[in-house]
Amino acid sequence: MNSLRLFAHPISKVVSSRTMASHPLSDLLGRLNHVAIATPDLEKASTFYKNLGAKVSEAVPQPEHGVYTVFVELPNSKIELLHPYGDKSPIQAFLNKNKDGGMHHICIEVKCIKKAMETVKSKKIRTLTEKPKIGAHGKDVVFLHPKDCGGVLIELEQE
Predict the structure, then answer these.
(1) What angle (nearest 5°) sits at the alpha carbon of residue 41, between those of residues 101 and 89?
(2) Residue 17: inside a domain, yes or no?
(3) Is-contact 91 38, C-beta < 8 A?
(4) Rounded to whole angstroms, how far apart are CA atoms 157 and 112?
(5) For the VOC domain, which residue ranges apply (predicted)?
(6) Is residue 142, in this structure, part of any structural domain at all?
(7) What per-residue confidence (pLDDT) applies to 24?
(8) In CATH, what number is assigned to the domain containing residue 139?
(9) Does 14 reside within a domain?
(10) Which residues contact 146 (CB under 8 A, 6 or more apart)?
(11) Is residue 46 within 8 Å of 58, Cβ to Cβ?
């Protein structure tokens, strides 16, 4: 019975009644677009998701980003598989430290990339570039420094 009383504690009422709309970034962050996974074997990773019944795209070279991308479509989001392209691929550097691959970044949509950049900078969150670049979906993107984001590389993408 005492364990049930925990849920009736006054602090839980305060926490549960707080809405996301009160958060300072509520007007900035949209839906999760994708989770990106670096892989040393793109074909093996693609086959893994195909065998689970997912719709998996063909590999697309993204020379300006130094990667090949494959998108795995899920009902509520996507997984982006990343594989090195070229000698200066940031994914190769990641794989040098993580031989089996792993989560590389998450991508969150924003309504206005320029406003998003201004907002994060005002909160002392560094961007990895001064201007947005065109991402794999043909939309403006910017990456946020993982040291300012709890150790996670975050990509913001224009809706």
Answers:
(1) 65
(2) no
(3) yes
(4) 9
(5) 31-159
(6) yes
(7) 55
(8) 3.10.180.10
(9) no
(10) 152, 153, 154
(11) no
Q: For 137-148, what is each residue's pLDDT tens digit? A: 899 999 999 999
pTM for the complete prediction?
0.81
Residues, the chain, total? 159
C-alpha count within 13 angstroms, C-beta hemisphere, residue 129 = 15
Q: What is the 3-state secondary structure (H, E, C) of the chain?
A: CHHHHHCCCHHHHHHHHCCHHHCCCCCCEEEEEEEEEECCCHHHHHHHHHHCCCEECCCEEECCCCEEEEEEECCCCEEEEEEECCCCCHHHHHHHHCCCCEEEEEEEEECCHHHHHHHHHHCCCCECCCCCEECCCCCEEEEECHHHCCCCCEEEEEC
Domain tally, the chain:
1
Binning the chain into helix, strand and coil, the percentages to the nearest 5 are: 30, 30, 40
Q: Output the six-digit token pair for 7.
A: 């849920």
What is the span of the domain harbouring residue 121?
Answer: 23-158
User: What digits encode the pLDDT tens for the residues 5-55?
Assistant: 455 545 444 444 445 455 556 678 999 999 999 999 999 999 999 999 999
Which stretches within 18-154 are classed as H helix? 42-51, 90-97, 113-122
DSSP conformational letter for 26: T
Using the structure block, give the residue that is written with the tokens 């670049």: 133
